[in-house]
Amino acid sequence: MKKYSLCAAVVLISVMSLFAQDKRRQFDPDEAYKNTCMRCHTSTQQYSPRMTKTIVMHMRVRANLTQEEAQAILKYLTDDALGQDAQPEKQRPMASRAETVGNESTLKR
Amino acid sequence: MNLKSVNMKSIVKGAITASRCLSVLLLLLMSCAAVQAKTAGVVEVSNLEVLRAGDDTRVEVTLTSPVRPLIEIATEPDRLVLILPNTVSSALQRRIGVNDNGVRRVRMGLNSANPPVTRVVVEMDRQLPYAVSTEDNKIILRVRPGLTSASATASQSGLANARLTASAQARAPVGAQQDSSDGASNPIASLTPSTVSAPTENRPGTSTASASTQNSQPAAVAISAATDPESKTAEAPIQPVPATPSETPHVGSPIPAVTGFMAFQTSFAPGEQHINPVFDPILLVPLGNRLLLESEFEMNLDAVRGDGKWGPAIVDHSIEYLQLNYIAHPNLTITAGRFLTPFGIYRERVHPLWVRNLQDEPIIFAMNANSSNGAMLRGDVGLSSGMNLTYSTYYSFPTSRKLVTSERRMGTRTSLVLPNKRIEVGASFSRNLGDLRYNMFGLDFTWNLKMIPLDIRAEGLRNAMLGSGYWVESAYRLRKLGSNPFLRKSQVVLRGEQYFAPRTAPMSDMAANMMSGLPDRDTKRLGIGWNYYLTNGIRLNASFGRNFATGENRNTWGAGITYRFATF
Question: Which of A42, B342, B380, B562 has its CA 20 to 30 A from that of B511?
Answer without folding.
Answer: B342
